[in-house]
Write a sequence for this structure.
């Protein structure tokens, strides 16, 4: 049970980092500063899709670019994985 709490906490932190990465990139875009590479934002979205999706919506950032249409797919993928792991955990 202790491991589940640690993994959940780490997952929450990764999603917060993804959210902040999208916000930071948007702010830098508005100020004409050095930007976060899109590949890094995609990796952040793959690892923390809840935060990335929330950041895209909150900051209205990267919502029209084709490759960022993957973010909702990552979100659905993670939801499926969470449901599957939950099923395995509670039926074992």
């Amino acid at each position: 049970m202790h491991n589940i709490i640690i993994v959940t906490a780490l997952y929450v932190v990764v999603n917060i980092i993804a959210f902040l990465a999208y916000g930071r990139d948007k702010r830098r875009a508005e100020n004409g500063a050095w930007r976060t590479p899109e590949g890094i934002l995609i990796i952040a979205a793959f690892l923390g899709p809840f935060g990335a999706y929330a950041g895209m919506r909150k900051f209205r950032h990267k919502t029209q670019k084709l490759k960022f249409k993957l973010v909702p797919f990552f979100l659905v993928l993670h939801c499926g994985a969470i449901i599957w792991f939950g099923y395995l955990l509670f039926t074992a």
